[in-house]
Design a protein that fits this description.
Length: 344
């Protein structure tokens, strides 16, 4: 078994690769999630300006702006997620505690989760095709190699990214896959993708009229079991009843969302079954303090002698320390070029 754990660095690597032919890095920024917020259409009328005082007043009053630096944007995200993580912990352990109705951070979180869905839909629409040069990308070469390798019986891909570029790449390469918990598209297929923080492709089966679209500021996050969702790659921008996405650095376990809990439990079960002959490759994880508990919960389930590799040009020191102290067969690579020689 090979387990791939992918974060934002995987998406950044992909965008850098296709920028050679598409020149899209002046239109897409996944490091700073507010940079192109004013370009994102408001769903009911298609007018650009989703990130604005008009549509996201709480985010706006906390300082969210397209002109923010990366550091300030990430600091704001961290503040919002920290507040919501604490809120979720209190309400999961206590009954009868009323919510502070004036809590701007909670309302900003609710704006953020739906804004991010339409941001990544907007980005997806900017890349209507995956270029033929994707065959030359080291990750494509590696995925093609391991999926076609008859000595590898199972490939598990855990991605914390919302975008569907990974799936579109696999479609382009004619490499079939299933979406764990949410949808089995093929039988007897060894590649399964799990998206514990959700995806723009997770579409609730109930569709409301687009004219009725609004941000839900209710006390509970909308939820549904996995059977209530379809996995789609078209018509992403409809007004679906439940938005199955958890903002970056959010700890999915704190909210008790049924769809996220099922995915999370399944990947922990898979990790628990690994042995010392299996392999884990980690790419592009930030390991922020607000989400590391969820990652740690997964990492401790892997066999201590599993072969674990980290691909990252700028390795977070705390993640490196955790992997060094827990896994004896641990290797760091600072470039994805190593993928071209692994498993060949």
């Amino acid at each position: 078994m090979i387990v791939l754990i992918l974060g934002n660095g995987f998406t950044i690597d992909f965008l850098n690769h296709i920028n050679q032919s598409h020149k899209i890095l002046d239109k897409i920024n996944v490091r700073n999630l507010f940079t192109f917020g004013s370009h994102v259409p408001w769903p009911p009328d298609g007018e650009p300006g989703f990130l604005s005082a008009k549509h996201c007043p709480n985010l706006w009053h906390l300082g969210a702006r397209p002109s923010m630096t990366d550091d300030k944007a990430n600091a704001l995200l961290e503040d919002i997620i920290t507040c919501v993580n604490v809120y979720a912990t209190i309400h999961s352990n206590t009954t009868g505690v009323p919510r502070n109705e004036n809590d701007i951070y909670i309302k900003a979180y609710q704006e953020l989760s739906i804004y991010l869905k339409f941001l990544f839909i907007y980005y997806n629409n900017l890349t209507p095709d995956i270029p033929d040069t994707i065959n030359q990308w080291p990750w494509s070469i590696y995925l093609d190699s391991i999926i076609k390798n008859t000595n590898i019986d199972s490939i598990i891909i855990i991605t914390y990214n919302y975008d569907i570029w990974l799936e579109r790449i696999l479609f382009k390469l004619n490499l079939p896959f299933n979406i764990g918990i949410m949808k089995r598209m093929y039988n007897n297929i060894k590649t399964t993708i799990f998206k514990p923080h959700g995806s723009i492709s997770f579409a609730h089966k109930t569709i409301n009229d687009l004219s009725s679209f609004k941000i839900n500021y209710g006390p509970e996050l909308p939820d549904a079991p996995p059977k209530k969702f379809n996995v789609i790659y078209e018509n992403l921008g409809y007004n679906y009843l439940v938005n199955a996405m958890i903002p970056p650095a959010g700890d999915s376990g704190r909210f008790g969302l049924e769809w996220a809990t099922r995915i999370r439990d399944e990947i922990k079960t898979i990790a628990r079954k690994t042995t010392e002959i299996d392999e884990v490759i980690i790419c592009g994880l930030s390991y922020w303090h607000v989400d590391r508990a969820e990652l740690d919960e997964l990492l401790v389930e892997f066999h201590p002698k599993i072969n674990i590799k980290l691909i990252n040009p700028k390795v977070p020191s705390n993640l490196d320390a955790v992997l060094t102290s827990n896994f004896c067969n641990y290797i760091i690579y600072n470039s994805n070029s190593i993928l071209e020689v692994l498993h060949r």
